[in-house]
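anyone seen this seq b4? input:
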Amino acid sequence: MSTATHTRQAPEDDLALVPAKPRIGDKVFTGLSTGAGIAIFVILAAVALFLIAQAFPALTSTPEMLQSRGYGPFWSWVAPFAFGTVYSAFWALVFAVPVAIGIALFISHYAPRRLASGLGYVIDLLAAVPSVVYGLWGANTFAAALQPLHAWLATYLGWFPLFTPPASGTGRSMLTTSLVLAVMILPIITSLCREVFLQTPKLHEEAALALGATRWEMICMAVFPFARAGIVSAVMLGLGRALGETMAVAMVLSGAGVIKFDIIGQQNPNTIAATIALNFPDASGLRINQLIAGGLILFVITLAVNMLARWIVRRRAAFSGAN
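predicted toks r here
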């Protein structure tokens, strides 16, 4: 005689099979989040369509038509400004990134807690300073202070192509502009790098120290590999700020439509944003379309930089907790 055994599920298992009752708050939050994400694409597409529509007359006009109105062919006109935009942002990153990473490391791993909190607050305050204030400081104070440095570089390092004499007599050069831009993007890169460094798992740091590593060796073995994607993101955000900066560059840089690698000379390549800001109030007709076409080129450059940054971060996502 066989006895049949019956198994009955536990009450907890029965409850687990019951689907959760949807809440109104969850639905509202989901709708708002989805709407916000869609709005970003809509706004980006609207900006792109506006730039393309307004730039179309300048892009399709013949060089003869543009020259007859005193504007010059579009691509030869915009090329020096595109070069100046990328060139000034490049030097700003060269000056700002090492300093920003050093400050972030000092705040996160070296400074006492009380000093670190105060220094972090001061760095964050730099981001709240308007760009026009940086422009006034750079044009009236910083440029004059750097003029002796320009003369020294032209005298003793004039053989190097970056410091070809004669040097600027006012100090309003690409070097001064890049340093001002470096100060402006310093808070962004520092703040993001500091937060990424603080997210490094303590077990990784303690394991490196337990193996006999010094503090710097621990940072190289545990902190930097973990924070690499976050550092790239911070640098690219700073680069985006430097590429689009307008007023500070317009007030500090003595720019022209030239392509020159010299960073201390009297003639320097201007940026697209500064050129638009300086010429748009007096522009009319086809000139407005040409300036907006320059804005379209700047839009494409910024978009390409951000896409490159996302690609780099995505490649490192599996090895970093920054995302």
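The chain is about 75% helix and 0% strand. The CA atoms of residues 92 and 179 lie 6 Å apart. kinda curious what u guys think
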